[in-house]
Specification:
Blueprint (H helix, E strand, L loop, with lengths): L3 E6 L4 E6 L5 H26 L6 E9 L15 E6 L8 E4 L5 E7 L2 E8 L9 E5 L2 E3 L2 E3 L3 E11 L2 E10 L5 E9 L11 E9 L7 E6 L12 E10 L7 E2 L3 E4 L1
Parallel strand pairs: 3-9, 3-10
Antiparallel strand pairs: 1-2, 3-6, 4-5, 4-7, 7-8, 11-12, 12-15, 13-14, 13-16, 16-17, 16-18
Length: 256
C-alpha cells in the first residue's frame, strides 16, 4: 500500500505522520487535534503580549554648563549617558539614554510614570540621582559643571598643516591628563571617532593662561586626509578622573 508522509509544523513541534493503512486515520485525527490546541494556546500567548500598552510619553532636553549656559558637547561613541529606573516594579532593570554629540537627548518610547534618573560616565562632575515624573512631552535639562572648558580655540590650515591653538580652564583640582586634535569627515569627530589624531600627554594642573598648540601634518596623512576634501577638526582635553570623557570645543570644517 502507498505510503504518504505529512510534515506539520507548530511553534515548538514538528510531527511526521505516515499513513500506511486506514487504521492510522484515527491517530492522525488525534494528532491534528493536538496541533490545533497548540496553535490555540500559542495564539492566546501572542495576544497577551500584543495587548500591552504602547509607550505613551516622551522626554527630551540637554546637558548645560551651569556657568556658561552652553550645551556640553559629547562623544558620539562612549559619550555620557542618562541612567534611569522606572519605579513601581520589583527588581527593575537599569536603562540608559545616550547623550547626542551636541549634548542633547530624546526618548520617544517612555511610559508615563515616575523614574529615578542620573547622569553617568560623562565629562562633568557627577550629579546626584533625582526623581522625575514623565508624562506627555516632558522636558528636563541638566545643569552640570564640566571638568574642562576649552577656551579660545582657533583651528586653521597653514601651509600644509592644520594648526590648533587653545586654552584650558579646568574646574576641578585633578590634573589634565591629555589634550588632542582630531580629524574626521563627520561633525561628531572626537577621541573615539577620527581618521587622524594628534594627542599629547601633559599630566598637570594647568593654568588658563597657558596656550596649547597641536598640529596635524597633512603631507604625512595624504591617504587619510585627501587634498580638496572637507574635514571637521576638533580639540579637546581629558581630566584625570574616574570614567571621565573628553571635553571639547566646537568642531571646525576646513577644506584641504
Amino acid at each position: 500500500m502507498e505510503t504518504v508522509s505529512f510534515k506539520i509544523h507548530s511553534i515548538n513541534t514538528m510531527l511526521t505522520i505516515k499513513k500506511t493503512n486506514c487504521k492510522m486515520m484515527k491517530p492522525l485525527k488525534i494528532h491534528l487535534s493536538i496541533l490545533v490546541c497548540l496553535f490555540s494556546l500559542s495564539s492566546c500567548e501572542l495576544s497577551e503580549i500584543d495587548n500591552y500598552d504602547a509607550p505613551n510619553a516622551t522626554i527630551s532636553g540637554g546637558v548645560y554648563d551651569v556657568e556658561t549656559k552652553e550645551l556640553v558637547q559629547q562623544d558620539i561613541i562612549r559619550g555620557g549617558q542618562i541612567e534611569y529606573v522606572e519605579q513601581g516594579y520589583n527588581n527593575p532593570q537599569n536603562q540608559y539614554m545616550v547623550l547626542k554629540n551636541d549634548g542633547t537627548y530624546q526618548n520617544k518610547l517612555m511610559f508615563a510614570n515616575t523614574y529615578t534618573m542620573q547622569l553617568v560616565r560623562g565629562n562633568f562632575v557627577p550629579l546626584e540621582k533625582q526623581e522625575v515624573v514623565v508624562k506627555g512631552d516632558t522636558k528636563l535639562d541638566f545643569q552640570v559643571q564640566p571638568y574642562i572648558r576649552v577656551k579660545n580655540a582657533n583651528i586653521v590650515k597653514q601651509d600644509n598643516k592644520i594648526i590648533a591653538t587653545f586654552n584650558i580652564q579646568q574646574t576641578v583640582s585633578n590634573e589634565v591628563s591629555r589634550i588632542g586634535l582630531f580629524a574626521h569627515e563627520e561633525v561628531n569627530v572626537g577621541d573615539p571617532l577620527h581618521v587622524v589624531a594628534t594627542r599629547q600627554d601633559i599630566n598637570v594642573a594647568t593654568s588658563e593662561s597657558t596656550l596649547y598648540t597641536l598640529e596635524i601634518d597633512l603631507a604625512a596623512h595624504q591617504g587619510s586626509l585627501k587634498p580638496g576634501s572637507a574635514y571637521y577638526f576638533r580639540v579637546g582635553g581629558l581630566i584625570n578622573a574616574s570614567e571621565a570623557k573628553y571635553n571639547y570645543a566646537p568642531a571646525v570644517r576646513i577644506t584641504l
